[in-house]
Here is the input.
Amino acid sequence: MNQDFVLRQIRKYGRVSRVTQKDAILTAIGIHVGLLEKKNVVIRELTVEQRDRVLYFVKQFCLTQGLEFEVR
Here is the structure.
C-alpha cells in the first residue's frame, strides 16, 4: 500500500464538497488498498456498505498516522 497515495486522497476528500467527488476518492482508496474490486464498483457509485467499509479504513488509517478525519 502506498501511504502517500492514501494521504493525498484523504486530503483531497477534505477539500471537495460534491458527493460524487467524495465517492470517487473513496473508490480510489478502496480499490488501492483492496477493500473494493473494480468489477464490483458501478461508475464510482458506492453502496452504503462499501462506503462505510472504506470510511472505517480511512478513520483507522488517520488514527494510526495521528491525523484528524471528519466525515462531511
About this structure: Residues 35 and 54 are 7 Å apart (CA to CA). The mean pLDDT is 90. The longest helix spans residues 48-65. Helices lie at 3-15, 19-33, 48-65.
